[in-house]
Design brief:
Largest sheet: 4 strands, antiparallel
CATH superfamily: Heat-Labile Enterotoxin, subunit A
Number of strands: 7
Radius of gyration: 14 Å
Number of domains: 1
Number of helices: 2
Oligomer: single chain
Length: 118
């Protein structure tokens, strides 16, 4: 098993908590393909969440079998992976942050656990 993280907006967590982590079909996936992206670094995932979610972000902690992950050939990162989807039972929970534009810092708000995690 590998522990990886995914950053997203706080509003997306509601959808993820219902169906797991799946590619967003509404966005243009010419570059990313039909994958979801995760990273070994919580800090990297938090930065991704800020890109997507603005001030209110969530970082998902995921424990997934290593064979569900593959390297992304388009990136030089040795800590980033992609997966076709990540079912809900592999998501342990998520930390919620608020980004402060004045200080450039993340304020930790709370942790929520996933009742479907096995």
């Amino acid at each position: 098993m590998a522990t990886v993280y995914h950053g997203t907006s706080l509003k997306n967590v509601e959808k993820i908590a219902k169906r797991g982590l799946v590619p967003n079909k509404k966005k243009n996936h010419d570059e990313s393909g039909d994958f979801v992206y995760v990273d070994e670094s919580r800090i990297t995932a938090r930065a991704w969440g800020r890109q997507v979610g603005g001030c209110d972000i969530a970082v998902l902690e995921i424990e997934v079998p290593e064979d569900m992950l593959s390297r992304d050939g388009q990136t030089l990162s040795k800590t980033s992976y992609r997966a076709a989807r990540i079912p809900l039972q592999f998501i342990k929970g998520w930390d919620i942050y608020k980004y402060d534009y004045l200080t450039g810092e993340y304020d930790y708000i709370r942790n929520e656990s996933n009742p479907h995690y096995k």
